[in-house]
């Protein structure tokens, strides 16, 4: 996708899919965090003008709508910080926000400037003053790969209860890996936080996959959970990845649920070449792969709580509890596993159910 030159532009199908993931996740994130904290922060680092050419809402309006109209009322302070480097788009966003009725506990800040400079300054001040950031979700959605230095992402993730959702333009990075201008190359190095990214140009294998793997490895240095979603163009070629990184187990689970909602087949991919109204790329039976994962991980284990299997499924595989249940049911039918008749609390287990406190043996 070429970088839009105008103030507003047409909404494309993969952005629709991206916004659907964002919307689904925020529906979970806002009430969960606000129930435990008196202040939470939503940052949109490349906010854009607020709407698209045919009046579809952009990410700032989506976030505000989710928070304001959620069925669960939130009383704590919600801070929304929208940043964009183009003044025309910021002015357009301000005009859009005039039509939005904010609850009194919403604090909305709209700024023109560079995301990494604005947020970087805040984080530096906090470090100097030894203060911490309130729980934060940062949506980092650039058109290119400059202005998203890994050092900044690292600083953000080191803050307690902070998460990032990043549009990582891997196709553009791949095309510019061998660019003659040092400035362009330096942007790539800064985005990865290592010169190893440049050396991928000389390596064998699929460069797109290698770049994705390297960025994932970098995020895993500062985040316990890293999940990605692949976006493809109309030629079905990988254009970018959506990377989610968090140190929160529940946040990771809710993002997985959001991604499954957009791609029910579990490939975590969306292509502009498919029907944009369907949001599905591949047909896939997740139970086969999950069965293999669980058996490989727990084979030979006896009388372990099913909670361990569920945690493994949710934390270490792409799958959810709703996928684990039919896997265990089928495995029990064909006697690949054995479930004890009594649970750890001494009560009888109901047949064909798999509560956390049931005991399982992988045969």
What is the number of beta strands? Answer: 11
Give the radius of gyration. Answer: 22 Å
Q: pLDDT under 50 segments (min length 5)?
A: 274-283
- Quaternary state of this entry equals single chain
CATH class descriptor name of the largest domain:
Alpha Beta
Task: Indicate the topology.
Elements lengths: L12 H22 L4 E6 L14 H10 L8 E8 L2 H11 L8 E7 L2 H15 L6 E5 L9 H9 L3 E7 L1 H7 L5 H11 L3 H4 L7 H14 L4 E8 L5 E9 L2 H14 L6 E3 L14 H13 L5 E2 H11 L4 H13 L3 E3 L19 E4 L1
Parallel strand pairs: 1-2, 1-4, 2-3, 4-5, 6-8
Antiparallel strand pairs: 5-7, 6-7, 9-11, 10-11
Structure description:
The protein has 13 helices and eleven strands. The chain is an alpha/beta fold. The protein has two domains: 13-271, 3-Layer(aba) Sandwich (Rossmann fold); 286-362. An eight-stranded mixed beta sheet has the order 3-2-1-4-5-7-6-8, sandwiched between helices. Strand 6 (225-232) and strand 7 (238-246) form a beta hairpin. Helix 1 runs antiparallel to helix 10 (249-262). The model is unreliable at 274-283 (pLDDT under 50).
List keywords for this structure.
alpha/beta; globular; eight-stranded mixed beta sheet; 2 domains
How would you concisely characterize the structure shown here?
By secondary structure, the protein is α/β, with parallel strands linked by helices. Helices cover 42% and strands 17% of the residues. Strand 4, helix 5 (150-158) and strand 5 (162-168) form a beta-alpha-beta unit.
């Amino acid at each position: 996708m070429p970088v839009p030159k105008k103030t507003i532009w047409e909404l494309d199908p993969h952005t629709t899919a991206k916004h659907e993931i964002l919307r689904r996740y925020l529906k979970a994130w806002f009430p969960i965090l606000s129930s435990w904290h008196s202040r939470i922060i939503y940052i949109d680092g490349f906010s854009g003008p607020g709407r698209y050419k045919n009046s579809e809402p952009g990410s700032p309006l989506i976030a505000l709508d989710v928070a304001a109209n959620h069925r669960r009322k939130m009383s704590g302070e919600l801070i929304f910080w929208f940043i964009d480097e183009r003044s025309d788009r910021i002015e357009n966003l301000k005009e859009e926000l005039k039509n939005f009725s904010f609850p009194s506990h919403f604090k909305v800040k709209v700024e023109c400037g560079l995301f990494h400079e604005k947020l970087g300054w805040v984080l530096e001040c906090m470090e100097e003053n030894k203060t911490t950031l309130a729980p934060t979700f940062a949506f980092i959605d650039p058109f290119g790969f400059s202005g998203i230095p890994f050092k900044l992402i690292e600083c953000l993730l080191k803050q307690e209860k902070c998460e990032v959702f990043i549009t990582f333009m891997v196709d553009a990075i791949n095309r510019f890996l061998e660019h003659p201008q040092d400035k362009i190359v330096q942007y790539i190095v800064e985005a990865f936080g290592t010169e190893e990214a440049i050396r991928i140009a000389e390596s064998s294998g699929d460069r797109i996959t290698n770049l994705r793997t390297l960025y994932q490895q970098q995020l895993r240095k500062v985040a316990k959970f890293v999940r990605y979603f692949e976006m493809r163009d109309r030629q079905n070629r990988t254009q970018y990845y959506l990377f989610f990184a968090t140190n929160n187990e529940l946040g990771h689970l809710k993002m997985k649920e959001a991604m499954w909602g957009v791609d029910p087949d579990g490939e975590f991919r969306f292509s502009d070449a498919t029907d944009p109204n369907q949001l599905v790329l591949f047909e896939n039976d997740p139970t086969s792969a999950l069965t293999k994962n669980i058996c490989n991980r727990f084979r030979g284990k006896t009388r372990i709580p099913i909670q361990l299997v569920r945690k493994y499924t949710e934390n270490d595989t792409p799958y959810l509890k709703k996928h684990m249940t039919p896997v265990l049911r089928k495995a029990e039918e064909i006697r690949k596993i054995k479930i004890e008749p009594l649970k750890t609390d001494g009560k009888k287990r109901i047949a064909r159910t798999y509560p956390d406190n049931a005991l399982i043996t992988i045969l």
